[in-house]
Design brief:
Main location: membrane
Protein name: O-antigen ligase-related domain-containing protein
Number of strands: 3
Number of helices: 14
Organism: Cryobacterium cryoconiti
Helix content: 55-70%
Largest sheet: 3 strands, antiparallel
Distance between the termini: 32 Å
Membrane topology: Multi-pass membrane protein
Subcellular location: Membrane
Amino acid sequence: MRPQNITQPGVGPRGWLMAALAGLSTFDPTLVLTVGPFVACVVFLFGRPGRLRITPSVLLAIALLAWIWLSVSWSVNPAAGQSTIMWAALLIIFIATVDYIQTLQQLRLVATGYLVGAFFAVAQTIFENQAAEGARVGVEGLNVNYLAYALASGFALIVLLWMTGPRTKRARVALLVVLVSLAVGVELAGTRGALLGVGLVAVWLVLCWAARRPPLKALVVALLVVCVLMISGVSDKASLVFEGGDRATGDWSGRLVLWPLARQIWAQHPLAGIGMGGFHVESGTGIGAHNALLEVGVSLGLVGLLLFVALFWTTLSNGVGAVDARLRAVLLGAFLLASAPAYLSGTWESAPASWVVLAVFSRLAVLAPAPDPLSVGSVRVSHGRMVTQPR
């Protein structure tokens, strides 16, 4: 069942600002972190600031930010204040995007803005690297893995727009063109996690097409098991069975060095961690743990990790009960599979693009059919039956 086509208010300048911010997040995260919070505040203040819905997601985002701020007092990282400001920017953008998306039209606009930015990033990649041969390429000045993960996340948004957008030939052709361009961009970047994410989304769509009910619960359980295995380290050596191709290094490009270090440091400070960005300093590597769960665990301890996981869980589950079950399962599965490799093998938790995409999928509730009862006095018509309306 598709969401009903109901009259939607115009998106206005606020919508175009949010769409531009979403597109920019795919290829210029530094600029987004600099101007994004101010844009988000403008969009929020010129909306309905007095009617901000204090949802569990908003509360958890505020709680997570407060814990990050507190962690500065015990952080081993001299630049912990900068890390805190970065996270404040990310969560402000997230909350403002969630607050802005109140209609299906607004949801589509932000998703479309993201894909336009991703398409531009691929075009820029091709233009800047016409003479490159046999190398991983991306946008100049941008980490190639960031770009690849941003493009992979775009596949989930393509699924979203394909299933909820207009079924006109023009819309379908546009989405197919973007899909091909994103696939080219991921291939040029050569990031294995992004390639895996795209492949998993394709497999998921085939499964959903073949099965009467998309196996979303089984997928969630499988991902939880993978997370536990990666946190514990049980699967480290066994995972090398899947490391093939010409980029095989025997340690997942250094990740099997970083992950044990992260577990060791976390074990010494299990509850509160060592402060934001502490792994960069304490490990002596100058880089992140390349696993969102371990990075957050080391930085913020078990308390911070529980807040982080709870934020994700409530964000994706809150208010979606009225959405068609099959549609909801297909979309959430596509998001989880496109994003999981980035979160579990990269530094995606601190990427502006990741929080924009999460905000979009947090508002799937707008896909629910709008109730349109015919009310007369204390009686309304619902599904062909007369039902007494409480006064």
